[in-house]
Amino acid sequence: MTRIFSGIKPTGHLTLGNYLGAVRQWVETDQHKADALFCVVDLHALTVDHDPARVRRLSRQAATLLLAAGLEPARCTMFVQSHVDEHTRLSYLLECTASDGEMRRMIQYKEKSARERASGGSVRLSLLTYPVLMAADILAYSADEVPVGDDQAQHVELTRDLAVRFNHRYGHTFTVPKAVLPTVAARVMDLQDPTTKMGKSHAETSGIVYLLDEADVVRKKIMRAVTDSGSSVVYDREAQPGVANLLEILASCTGGKPADLAERYDSYGALKRDTADAVLELLRPVRERHAELCADPGYVDAVLRAGAERARQVARPTVDAAYAAIGL
Ligand code: ADP
C-alpha cells in the first residue's frame, strides 16, 4: 500500500494557503487512498526565534485544526514530531550524508536567513539543517508520496537526493519519495502582496487569511485584496498576480479552472465577492468543528498519543536499519 507522509509547522496560525495547498488533499484524498501519516513538526518551529509557550499552544491548535478539517484518526496516523525520537536519530545520519553547500543553496534558507539578518537577529544553525530533519521526517516512514505546496518541492527534491546517495553508498535502506503538488493553488499568495506566498510564519497582516478568522474578517480581507491596474479579469500570473491569485483560490474552492472562471467576470468586485463566499463556505464547517474539539482536549491528547505510538512502530525498523547500514 502506498505510504504518504506530510507535516505542518506550528510557527503561526494555519492559513488558507496551508489548507488549499496541503491539508485539503490530506483530508479529501490521501487518508482514503493510502497509509497516511500527518505530523505537527514542532522541532521545525525552533529554527527561528520562538516562544516556548506559544509553540506548545500552536502545536495543539494545529493538531486540533487538522482534526477539524477532517483528518480521521481511524483512517490516518496523526502525531507530533517531538513525541517520536526516530526523527532526530535519523536526522544526524542524514547530516553525515548531506553537504553544507547543498544546504546553503536551499531557497527557503536563503530567504529566511536574509530576513533574520536584516532584522538584526542571528541565524540558528538549525535553520540551515532544517531540510535534513525534514528529509528524516519523510525517509523514516518509507513514504512514497509527500503531498506539499510548491514552496516545499525543493526540500522534497533534496530528500530524494539524500535517499539515493545513502542507498548507493550504504546499501538499499530508504524508499525514494516523490512530491505531489495540487494542480491549482499550489502557491496561494498574500492578498496584499501577491508576489509573496501567504505564509503563516510571516507577521500577521490583512493579506493572510487564517482558518480561524471570523467570517466578517475573511470577507474584509478578500474584498480588500490588491488587484492590478486595469479592470479586465484574465488569468495571468505574471501580468496580473493579484487577480490570478483570487482566481486560483476560487477555482480551488469550487473545483473549476482559473482560466475558465476568468471568462465569467467583468469586474474585480464580483470576483472578490464570489471568492469570499466560496472561502467562507469551505471554512465554516472547519471552524465549527474546531470549536467543538476545543471543548474536548482529552480527545485530541488521546489521538496524538496513539498516533505517536503507531509512528514509532513504523519508523523504528527503518531507522535501525540505517544505523546498521552506516556502520553503527
Ligand atoms: P508555512 O510556510 O505557512 O509556515 P508549512 O511550512 O508549515 O507552512 O507548510 C505546511 C504545508 O502547507 C506545506 O505542504 C506547504 O507547502 C503548504 N503551504 C504553506 N504555505 C502555502 C501557500 N501559501 N500555498 C500553498 N501551500 C502552502
Task: Give a description of the structure.
- The protein is mainly alpha-helical and 328 residues long.
- Helix 3 runs parallel beside helix 12 (297-326), helix 6 crosses helix 7 (153-170) and helix 8 packs antiparallel against helix 11.
- The strands form two sheets. A three-stranded parallel β-sheet has the order 1-2-3. A two-stranded parallel ribbon has the order 4-5.
- The protein has helices at residues 16-33, 52-69, 86-95, 100-104, 107-118, 125-139, 153-170, 215-223, 241-254, 258-262, 268-294, 297-326, and strands spanning 3-8, 35-40, 76-80, 145-147, 178-180.
- The protein has two domains: 3-181 and 296-326, HUPs (Rossmann fold), CATH 3.40.50; 215-291, Tyrosyl-Transfer RNA Synthetase, CATH 1.10.240.10.
- It is 55% helix and 7% strand.
- Bound molecules: adenosine-5'-diphosphate (ADP).
- Adenosine-5'-diphosphate binds at residues 8-9, 11, 15, 17-18, 21-22, 148-149, 151-152, 186-188, 197-201.
Query: Under the CATH scheme, which architecture of the largest domain would be assigned?
Result: 3-Layer(aba) Sandwich
Rg result = 20 Å
Largest sheet: 3 strands, parallel
**Helicity, as a percent range:** 55-70%
Number of domains: 2
Identify every distinct bound molecule in the structure, by name, code or SMILES. Answer: adenosine-5'-diphosphate
Biggest sheet, strands in spatial order? 1-2-3
Q: Which ranges are low-confidence, i.e. pLDDT below 50, for 5 or more consecutive residues?
A: none
CATH topology of the largest domain: Rossmann fold
Q: What fraction of residues sit in β-strands?
A: 5-15%
SSE order, as H and E? Answer: EHEHEHHHHEHEHHHHH
Number of helices: 12
Average pLDDT score: 96
Subcellular location: Cytoplasm
Pfam families: tRNA-synt_1b
Binding site for L-tryptophan: 137
Family: Belongs to the class-I aminoacyl-tRNA synthetase family.
